[in-house]
Amino acid sequence: MRYVDEFRDQGLAQDLAATLSRTLTRPRRIMEVCGTHTMAVFRNGLTTLLPEGLELVSGPGCPVCVTSAPHIDAFLALAGRSGIIIATFGDLFRVPGSAGTSLAHARSQGARIEVIYSPMEGLRLARDHPDETVILLGIGFETTTPGVAATIRVAKREGLNNFLCFSTQKLIPPPLMSLFADPEQNIDALLCPGHVSAIIGTAAYAPLAKQYHLPCVISGFEPVDILQALLLLVRQLEEGRAQVENAYTRVVSHAGNIPAQTLVAEVFAPADTAWRGLGIIPDSGLALRDHYRVHDAQERLGVVVAPATEVQGCRCGQILQGRIRPPACPKFKALCTPANPVGPCMVSSEGTCAAYYNYAPESPAKRRTPILRQDTQQVMPASAGGSERSS
Ligand code: SF4
C-alpha cells in the first residue's frame, strides 16, 4: 500500500530500535498520551523491540476511559426516560456506570439505544423520529469534536429541535498540564497523539515543553512512526533539550486545522469537566454555546451529573495517570476481562487494560505478541460489535 507500507517496514523498524538502544544511556519513562498509540504499541509488538530501560506508560488519551462514572450514570438515567432515543458509539456501549450496569444492559431492559458510526446518523434518527428526542452522546477529543460540531450546526439549520447532544467532549492539553503540575509525576517525555494534533497543531504543546521542561514529539500510528518519535524523544532527553518536535509531518502542521478549529469554536465553549481519575479540570471540556443551547441535552432535560466517584476496586484512574500498569490491579484478568469488564480501560478499543489483556506476552489467550503486522486487521477485545472511533 503506497505511503503506508514504508511505515510498517520491519527492517527499518529494527534499525530504529537498534539506534534507540545505542542512544539510551539511562532509564527513561515516556508517556504515550493517546489510547490509539497504546493499542498500536501492543498490537505491533513494539514492546519487544524497545531497549531495556525505556518504559512506556499510558496517559489520559482514551476518550471512553476518561469519561467519569457519574457521566455514564447520567446517560443511563436518560436512557430510562420515555420518548428518548440514545445515539452512541459502540465503544461506550458496554462501559459500566457506578452501579455496574451499562447502556448494553439498559437496552436489554427495553431502553431505546442505537449504536451509530457517525454523529450524522444521530441526526438521521432525529429526522426519522420527529415525535421522539434523540440524544447524541458526545464523547471524544479534538479529533472527533469537529464532526459533532458540524452535526449540531446542521440540526440548528434544519430546526431539528428533537436532536440533542450530551457533550462530554474533552481537550487534551489541559489534563496534561494538570498531570505535570504534580511534582511527584515521574514521566520524562510525551509521545503526543497524531490525530488530535492534526486538529490542534504542534503549537498546542509548547506550554508543556516550556513550563515543565518536557520533550514532546508528535507521532503517527504506524510502527516506524512510533519508533522514530521515540528516538527523537530519547535524543532530546540525552541532550537535555525540551522541545516540541513533529514526527508526523505528513499529517500535522504547526497551526493545525484552522477551519476545524473555527467550526468547533462556533459551536462549543471551553468548560470545566470531570475526568475519571483526574477530577474536575478547569476548561478541559466543551459545552454548547448559547446560540446552540436548544440542542444541549443537559440544559433541555435538566440533567444533573453527580460528583466524581470511581467504580469500586477499579484502578482505571491510576492507569490513566500513568501511575500503575494493568497487572497491578487486583481485578485484572481474575475478575475483569473483555467479556466481563469492570472498568472502561478493559472495554474500550483504546483501553490500556484491553491492550495488556489481548497483546501482552503473558496474555491469557496465549497468543504470541505479533511483531509489525503487515495487515490492517485488528484483533479487538470482545465488544458490542458496534462502531468505534478514535479520540
Ligand atoms: S483491570 Fe479492570 S478493574 Fe482493573 S483497572 Fe483495568 S478496567 Fe479497572
Protein topology:
Layout: H1 10-23, E1 28-34, H2 35-43, E2 54-61, H3 63-66, H4 69-79, E3 84-89, H5 103-108, E4 113-116, H6 119-128, E5 133-138, H7 145-158, E6 163-167, H8 173-180, E7 189-193, H9 194-200, H10 206-212, E8 216-219, H11 223-239, E9 244-246, H12 258-267, E10 268-275, E11 279-288, H13 297-301, H14 316-320, H15 344-347, H16 352-359
Parallel strand pairs: 1-2, 1-7, 3-4, 3-5, 5-6, 7-8, 8-9
Antiparallel strand pairs: 10-11
This protein binds iron/sulfur cluster (SF4).
Residues 314-316, 319, 326, 329, 331-332, 336, 342-343, 345-346, 353 line the site of iron/sulfur cluster.
User: Would you tell me the structural class of the helices and strands?
Assistant: alpha/beta
Unreliable spans are: 364-386
| Sheet with most strands: strand arrangement | 2-1-7-8-9
Largest sheet: 5 strands, parallel
Q: Helix coverage percent of residues?
A: 25-40%
* Average residue-wise pLDDT: 90
Q: What's the helix count?
A: 16
- How many DSSP E strands? 11
Q: Rough shape? A: globular
CATH arch. level architecture of the domain at 65-171 and 256-301: 3-Layer(aba) Sandwich
CATH topology of the domain at 65-171 and 256-301: Rossmann fold
Q: Class of the domain at 65-171 and 256-301 in CATH?
A: Alpha Beta
Bound molecules: iron/sulfur cluster
The CATH homologous superfamily name of the domain at 65-171 and 256-301 equals HypD, alpha/beta domain 2
Sequence of secondary-structure elements: HEHEHHEHEHEHEHEHHEHEHEEHHHH
Radius of gyration: 21 Å
State which percent range the strand residues make up. Answer: 15-25%
How far is the first residue's CA from the last residue's CA? 25 Å
